[in-house]
């Protein structure tokens, strides 16, 4: 294809690119000490005889010290995205993705493998999409989504019972999937509220244009793009710190919404030492009770499940903080503090070593497995097919892309002079 010929002219031959990987593995560990790169090969047999001079490429894993250090300050959650390669040879690029307290995503490790063989949890949007193929109607899909997002068992069974009243077959369909794989109330707070693959799919823009490159060029591109990403995000967080902000914009937005909800609550303190309360939700006039919840600030739990699932105060916990005149700041997970987010991007990358200075390699010649070669006719589709899961929120307010404050843009941000990079 013309496109592949153009890629060869710019980035080199696909087959030769595989043999460049062993030198890159050696070179990256000189360039960035602490980098981890593991290349696996499989034997080549010709006519039943082992070829001792060559080996097929099998798998490659790699990560860099800034990514390893950054993960110490991220949410303790990893989402793994698998995306197909579009070049001359097939395969799958796996990316381990983490998220900081301001909802920024960062690839922390990569692997080139033959395919995906395991899953840990399911994206509820995809579960609901498959559900809708069998059971038509937006109401049924909405009920399933509400059940999945429920943070406590009582709330889950409330929505599930409504779903059962609509059609028992809907519940039978959902019950075939283990609850811990798609419901929030069964995950014990491990997901930090992430019920979809949005974290993983956001990384597609990070990798745009590299999946159809020769394998060594693809690997090298991840280094350059990560270096650029660390500088850009570090500059943004530094600008936000310069405005005196303590917490991420994501957290502040959630707390502001929770504070508005908490205005109509009645709080009763039961244990002064352990800070245990009951909170009664009432109508704005205070005439009717809408429900009662037990809150423990000491153990950071609430009957609504929000506090322990998302790791910051729910509306009921905020009402208790106001009642006892204690700050809610101490009940927020450290991952949401801007100082912690800044630590993610504090370690920088080094400029890459030119290929001529890579260490020599005198091992087996690494070649691609001919069985992995793509079809010679036609070319793979490189544009993502959009679905109803890609719809954006038209009401989202516009903020500066640097300091995240409203009223101006990145171009005229007052913090632009004080934020020069990702390192302190």
UniProtKB/TrEMBL annotation:
<dbReference type="InterPro" id="IPR006564">
    <property type="entry name" value="Znf_PMZ"/>
</dbReference>
<feature type="domain" description="SWIM-type">
    <location>
        <begin position="293"/>
        <end position="325"/>
    </location>
</feature>
<dbReference type="GO" id="GO:0003676">
    <property type="term" value="F:nucleic acid binding"/>
</dbReference>
<protein>
    <submittedName>
        <fullName>Uncharacterized protein LOC107484673</fullName>
    </submittedName>
</protein>
<keyword id="KW-0479">Metal-binding</keyword>
<dbReference type="InterPro" id="IPR007527">
    <property type="entry name" value="Znf_SWIM"/>
</dbReference>
<dbReference type="InterPro" id="IPR001878">
    <property type="entry name" value="Znf_CCHC"/>
</dbReference>
<feature type="region of interest" description="Disordered">
    <location>
        <begin position="369"/>
        <end position="424"/>
    </location>
</feature>
<keyword id="KW-0862">Zinc</keyword>
<dbReference type="InterPro" id="IPR036875">
    <property type="entry name" value="Znf_CCHC_sf"/>
</dbReference>
<feature type="compositionally biased region" description="Basic and acidic residues">
    <location>
        <begin position="387"/>
        <end position="396"/>
    </location>
</feature>
<feature type="compositionally biased region" description="Basic residues">
    <location>
        <begin position="397"/>
        <end position="411"/>
    </location>
</feature>
<dbReference type="Pfam" id="PF04434">
    <property type="entry name" value="SWIM"/>
</dbReference>
<feature type="domain" description="CCHC-type">
    <location>
        <begin position="399"/>
        <end position="415"/>
    </location>
</feature>
<keyword id="KW-0863">Zinc-finger</keyword>
<feature type="compositionally biased region" description="Basic residues">
    <location>
        <begin position="373"/>
        <end position="384"/>
    </location>
</feature>
<dbReference type="GO" id="GO:0008270">
    <property type="term" value="F:zinc ion binding"/>
</dbReference>
């Amino acid at each position: 294809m013309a496109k592949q010929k153009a890629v060869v002219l710019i980035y080199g031959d696909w087959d030769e690119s595989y043999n460049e990987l062993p030198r890159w593995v050696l070179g990256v560990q000189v360039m960035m000490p602490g980098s981890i790169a593991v290349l696996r090969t499989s034997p080549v047999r010709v006519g039943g005889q082992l070829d001792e001079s060559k080996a097929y490429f099998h798998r490659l894993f790699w990560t860099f010290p800034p990514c390893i250090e950054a993960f110490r300050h991220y949410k303790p959650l990893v989402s793994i995205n698998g995306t197909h390669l579009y070049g001359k040879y097939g395969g799958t690029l796996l990316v381990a993705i983490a998220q900081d307290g301001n909802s920024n995503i960062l690839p922390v490790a990569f692997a080139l493998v033959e395919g995906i063989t395991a899953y840990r949890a399911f994206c509820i949007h995809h579960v609901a999409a498959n559900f809708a193929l069998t059971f038509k109607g937006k109401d049924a899909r909405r009920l399933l989504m509400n059940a999945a997002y429920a943070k406590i068992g009582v709330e889950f069974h409330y929505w599930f019972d409504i779903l059962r009243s609509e059609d028992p077959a809907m519940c039978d369909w959902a019950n075939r999937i283990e609850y811990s794989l798609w419901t929030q109330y069964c995950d014990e707070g491990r997901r930090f509220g992430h019920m979809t693959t949005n974290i993983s799919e956001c990384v597609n823009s990070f990798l745009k244009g590299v999946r159809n490159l020769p394998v060594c060029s693809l690997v090298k591109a991840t280094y350059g793009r990560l270096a650029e990403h660390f500088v850009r995000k570090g500059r943004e967080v530094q600008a936000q710190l310069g405005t005196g902000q303590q917490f991420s914009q994501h957290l502040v937005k959630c707390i502001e919404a929770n504070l508005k909800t908490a205005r109509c609550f009645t709080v009763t303190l039961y244990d002064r030492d352990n800070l245990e309360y009951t909170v009664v939700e009432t109508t704005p006039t205070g005439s009717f009770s809408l429900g009662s919840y037990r809150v423990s600030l000491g153990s950071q739990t609430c009957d609504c499940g929000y506090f322990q699932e998302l790791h910051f105060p729910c509306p009921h916990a905020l009402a208790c903080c106001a009642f006892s005149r204690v700050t809610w700041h101490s009940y927020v997970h450290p991952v949401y503090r801007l100082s912690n987010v800044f630590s993610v991007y504090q370690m920088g990358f080094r400029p890459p070593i030119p290929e001529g200075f890579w260490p020599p390699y005198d091992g087996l010649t690494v070649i691609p497995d001919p069985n992995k070669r793509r079809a010679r006719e036609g070319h793979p589709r490189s544009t993502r097919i959009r679905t109803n899961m890609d719809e954006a929120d038209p009401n989202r307010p516009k903020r500066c892309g640097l300091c995240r404050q409203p009223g101006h843009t990145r171009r005229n941000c007052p913090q632009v002079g004080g934020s020069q990079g990702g390192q302190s």
